[in-house]
Design a protein that fits this description.
By secondary structure, the chain is an all-alpha fold. The chain has eleven helices and no strands.
Length: 288
Amino acid sequence: MLAMIGSIVVLLCVAGGFMMSGGNLLLLWHPSEIVVIVGAALGAFLTSNPLKIVKASFAGAIGLFKKPRYERDDYVDILKLVYDLLVKSRKEGLLAIEADIDDPAKSSVFSRYPDILADHHMLEFITDCLRLMVGGNLDPNELESLLEYELDTHHKEAAEPAHAVQKVADALPGFGIVAAVLGIVNTMAAIDGADTVTIGAKVGAALVGTFLGILVAYGFVGPIAAAMEHRAHEEGKAFEVVKMALVASVRGYPPQVAVEFARKLLFSDIRPTFSDLESHLKNKVGAK
């Protein structure tokens, strides 16, 4: 929603300022310039990226107009799920959660968190981490190092669409110049016998190409790329939370302390307070 508001503000301010200075919006309407700039940018985008990045880029841009994947309640659920699993493994042994991680859909623990069950990437990350704890003899440092490598790969993959869109934003002013040069070529071709009004209109149309390239780059595509990068970084925080809790558990901390380590990683606007999280955990314990 905020991305939509920002885009509207850009349009209103640019168009409003132009009209306040006596301009006519119809002077900026040149479909041929739009075809050159947008078409060339889209073609270059398709040429320079694999299909996976193309799909992820469009999905990420559209996703900016939706709510974030992980909000405060989602983080609380993740912390509660990890806490439940750690408590069970501490009371009954690590092998007790083997059935839970082999088939989460039939697990009495995972079934209490349907949103996490529906999140394929998060579910896979949690179960893979637990498998390392159950089946491996890794010490805490080795486990932390291995999970760091996995998270680093995840973060790089999640940031690739934003970087691809940013490259388009960087190229758009250049495509605006291309459109402007083509407009000047048309102007030069029509200059013989043309009056000043005609020549002025053609030069103005050519300059619109430069204007559109810069406006679309810095007013829309560049900010969208930045917003996509922020969104990817925020969503990656959920995976860091799981990693921290599990590593703390392997280091020997009790489940409630391990979850507290993870809670500290969250940004202030989505981080539940210590007492709030504690009450959630106690309610969950009381519900069992």
